[in-house]
Write a structure and sequence with these properties.
- The structure is a homotetramer of 345-residue chains.
- The first copy, chain A, has 345 residues and is an alpha/beta fold.
- The first copy, chain A, has ten helices and 14 strands.
- Chain A has two domains: 124 residues, Rossmann fold (3-Layer(aba) Sandwich), CATH 3.40.50.720; 163 residues, 2-Layer Sandwich (Dihydrodipicolinate Reductase, domain 2).
- Helices cover 28% and strands 21% of the residues of chain A.
- In chain A, helix 5 links the parallel strand 6 and strand 7.
- In chain A, helix 5 runs parallel beside helix 10 and helix 6 runs parallel beside helix 8.
- The longest helix of chain A is centred in the middle third of the chain and has 15 residues.
- The radius of gyration of chain A is 20 Å and the shape is globular.
- In chain A, 58% of the residues are buried.
- Chains in contact: A-B, A-C, A-D, B-C, B-D, C-D.
């Protein structure tokens, strides 16, 4: 059994980790920490876990007393950085769901997150946790930086095209919609049911923190001789709890390519990427609560439109983190992640 | 492995059976029938099952060719009645999720369902599939009549009180709210998102088909010397997909009884009934997609208010049907039903 | 033109007052105050008012400088009490949408609101602003205490029966469901879309602040010789923005009465109460954003069930306040309140 | 008073016309026809109109007996074509909300709507009812073809840029999201609350009927020497009742232009187009139930992103139709359309 610890267990990615890990056959949850809730029962915050988890929240400072093999950070940015040195020194592996170690360019990170990086010495060794690209590196990693929700959906949509040089890398526009849980479990007026339901809007149109991560990820799969990818990322808030859908458009450099075949071949052996039949439309409800990403590719004249649907808290966060854990420990990659979505639901 | 067949696999209770059964370790789904969809892939109707179930819908007339051990009927009323004789003759067990065999009084059934019963000879042997009351009989049953969604929530709320004679049996008023999936997968204008969201209303206030079933179930647990239970049942339509919540009020005959203790003792060994701490309020989201029913008991002067929350498609239908199957086959009762609800979600 | 001021213009009842008053032909809004937002434009908080209202929020202490004829308090309880003396001294009329002056029994108010009343000398003169009962008194009032949202829906449902002594006054059970706006514009986790949608639950089952107000209102219409009305009030939270629906049950003392006729006669001349045809079910969407209350009466054996639907922010708060204003100033009662609900919507 | 008739009064655009027209001070509704509902009261279909409209649905064949001055068609495509000749012969004006006369190229219409046009002789005289472009022609029109919901939102977003030649006309990509009412009042499974809520998806990615209308409208405002506009239109279904939001991206030909000023000047005198401050994000809730369109322009390097929000049933259909009627009859353009959106709501 893998002794796992979760730091920041009171937010939505923490809740999703707990939901999935209590059913994982190879995992023992040894501690769940929350500075604000230390000493209270986890099931008081998450009554859905009654009967599945009998732990109190611990203080983060007591983390190593629980002797974990692996720590998941489900915290806002800045927290993992501050604790990283102690944990690494103890030989404990880390899967960080926050943005702390995703960006390789420290200055770029500091610009977008508006603070000094607290443990830059770990940036280089951090492995970007997108299994469809980095499976081998993840297997050997001590520190995995899990991708953001939007970046996962957009990278999976564009990687097959960029790897083969089929699109103009400067032409990518990614129009995405996210459920409200993407804003976290934060009590803010705009996310009240009374304000966010019966509404649809764009936000951060001037620029969003996930944009540099998307660009970095796309460039990582390009041939070195290609001009580097650029992305215009346009996020929207959708009146639903969970789900991300991205509609990504790019200019084709070769309109004769069999794009459907390109996608099917690229993801033929990926357990969590489903390439739909030509002409299909992914729907977020079909992947709700699962670690799957549905893709559909639509050629439109000299452009291509790729549609991508995932659950922002599962494949976009906690499910993908567990997929990375499975890879690290040599388990079947789908372990603990193989239940279908509810329908209706 | 239990060879199971599902008849009526295109509705919501059929979909829920499929979702749960594909993860059940002791079940093999041998056929899923639908007269209207015969020959098409099940995953075309339910894309969430892609990778979990590789079957085409069959014609119901070919049912026995699949050599099932057990048949689930997830059909409108009237269908199970018509096929019952053939299936029983073949020695195959039946769990019927429809109303066909729930009511012991044939005339009463015919009055509420406005048609002649087509196989009354099976009514007597049918076991009402509420494990919290009928566990032993279910274990030996050849035909289980699964309770309706509302009746489950209301019976679980009142049984502890009626068994001990703590309330006036004529005083029960049950105010319930159901998600829209309770209306089935039927394309009718009132259930469109545009009509049913941002709305709340009562319906069938003059009388609802579940009322006689509730009354029959409550009387079955009363002492013979008590006056028979009556229920004023008041259903409401809630703008959400899943969930039933009942608020049941009755007059106490003994205001000194420790009602919290009565409930805790009654359900101490029930895996799917959770009695919340005094003063609590069940929420449908905490049991969404699970087979659990949350109960809370609130004494209010000379009355008692019992709150009850379940998922109408799981404990209120398909989950309970699988619980019954587990009992019949001597499995751990929670087999295939032991995953927590998603939160948020 | 009536010079009106609104205190507490940043909450939902304030927003609803503003929406309605900008279209009211006899009203000029002279000031809108908010301590926290003083100096910022009202349209920054409420972009829907762009082009309809060109004012900045003022500080409440500057209220009388605007020389209002009438002040609406759309504030939490406690605020109107503190300012009442100054306003009354200036000869300005007050319509208070908060709970400050609704309860005639000062000790009862202090018990439920857990604080000392700050201006008890105004309690007696305050007129309870339910036009269907108090029209004449409202016309002459200097201080109107507007009814709460739940109390309005339940009183309108029971008044015809209590006035004629047709029910047992001790038998009333009122089950109500409210949209989330009933909780105000408060950033709290349980009211986030992610927590409150796809959920249904009871709350305050042990007792709710509106209960004494309901009881006081019902007793006010009873014959003095009747035993005083009691109400078991059971509120629920419905996953929608607006609307209140009450299902009120009582024991009939005379099962032969023509209840439909009783209701139709009682409300024959009420512009905002609509008695639906026998057998009907009110729906909150049909009165959304309007000042109407739909009622339907269903006899069920020796009980009666009355269904009642209103918009909690309109007939349950701001619309009713304007109706009272119209009465005070001798206007047609429907002035500024005569637009139909949107459908769908 | 303008004697108006509505054909097809049972759908959502018909309902919205009725809601708005009953409050219009210069309009008398003389007949509302529906073939399927002829003889039943309009308020039975739309209980929100109780007290506002006392008419039965008439048969469309009796239309002219009501002696209307103006007929609104709120019908599926094909109906207005079939009746046009009779109505025009009687000298009655027509405002058609369907697609029948929007497309000037008959062959193109027949290709997208897959049927022969039944009255092509009226195509040329039909005036496209977008007041922001065609005000003068609308004033003199006998037949107005009202724009579709998506085309209105996208044209208003792009017209200022195309008129001044500021963008590459071949580079336009329009991502739009619509509430479910855009699918009409049709009982189809995908639009049930159980299927459409908690979901987000693209649809018609291969091509949508509104695309040729958008292209025609954009080309109409271009300089003749420009290369003709092309649009990649990508519609999405949003889990809400009402609202359309478009995010339109194009390549700038001159990155130094003051785009904010261009938009503000273009729409300075338009009563129903609101150009938000730089950096803003339109929200569909702020224009819900109103005839306004909110726009915001965001330069992003060598591209421009224009955000556009409207109510699909109001500015996207029935409100715009009434705006056209006001223009035809020389009324203030905002007559009957000047009420703010509800908030929350």
């Amino acid at each position: 059994m893998i002794r796992t610890a979760i730091i920041g267990g009171t937010g939505y990615t923490g809740a999703e980790l707990l939901r999935l890990l209590v059913s994982h056959p190879e995992v023992e949850i040894v501690t769940v920490s929350s500075r604000s809730e230390a000493g209270t029962a986890v099931v008081d915050a998450f009554p859905n876990l009654k009967g599945y988890l009998d732990l109190d929240f611990s203080d983060p400072s007591d983390l190593l007393d629980a002797k974990p093999d692996l720590v998941f950070f489900a915290t806002p940015h800045g927290v993992a950085q501050a604790m990283m040195n102690d944990i690494a020194s103890a030989g404990v592996k880390v899967i960080d769901l926050s943005a702390d170690f995703r960006i390789k360019d420290q200055a770029l990170w500091e610009q977008w997150y508006n603070q000094a990086h607290q443990s830059p010495e770990f940036i280089e060794q951090a492995v970007y946790g997108l299994p469809e690209v980095n499976r081998a590196a993840i297997a050997d990693a001590s520190l995995v930086a899990c991708p953001g929700c939007y970046p996962t959906s957009i990278q999976l949509a564009m990687i097959p095209l960029l790897e083969k040089g089929l699109i103009d890398p400067a032409s990518i526009v990614a129009y995405s919609g996210s459920g409200v849980s993407g804003a976290g479990r934060n009590a803010k007026v705009p996310y009240l049911l009374t304000e966010a339901s019966e509404n649809f809007q764009a936000y951060s149109t001037a620029g969003h923190r996930h944009e540099p991560e998307i660009v970095q990820g796309l460039r990582a799969v390009q041939s070195e001789t290609d001009k580097p990818a650029e992305v215009l990322f346009l996020p929207h808030l959708v009146p639903m709890i969970r789900g991300i859908h991205s509609t990504v458009v790019a200019d084709l450099v070769d309109v004769s390519a069999d794009l459907q075949a390109v996608f099917e071949e690229r993801y033929a052996h990926e357990p969590f990427v489903e390439v739909l039949a030509a002409g299909s439309h992914p729907q977020t409800r079909y992947v709700r609560g699962t670690n799957s990403c549905q893709l559909a590719v639509h050629p439109r004249g000299n452009r291509v439109v790729v549609l991508s649907a995932e659950d922002n808290l599962t494949k976009g966060a906690s499910g993908q983190a567990i997929q990375c854990m499975n890879i690290i420990y040599g388990l079947e990659e789908t372990t603990g992640l193989n239940t279908p979505a509810m329908l209706p639901g």
